[in-house]
Design a protein that fits this description.
Length: about 40
């Protein structure tokens, strides 16, 4: 399993901060909902 880059994490967090829901952001970036919740 590879680690996600810091830049990728920033993009995901920015999408969350912009009002994206956990599921929406997870689908957009092709990651799990639990991962989005964990970093948010």
């Amino acid at each position: 399993m590879l680690a996600y880059s810091k830049e990728f994490r920033r993009e995901v967090l920015a999408a969350c901060d912009a009002g994206g829901g956990t599921r929406e952001v997870a689908l957009r970036f092709d990651v799990s909902e639990s991962w989005v919740r964990r970093i948010n």
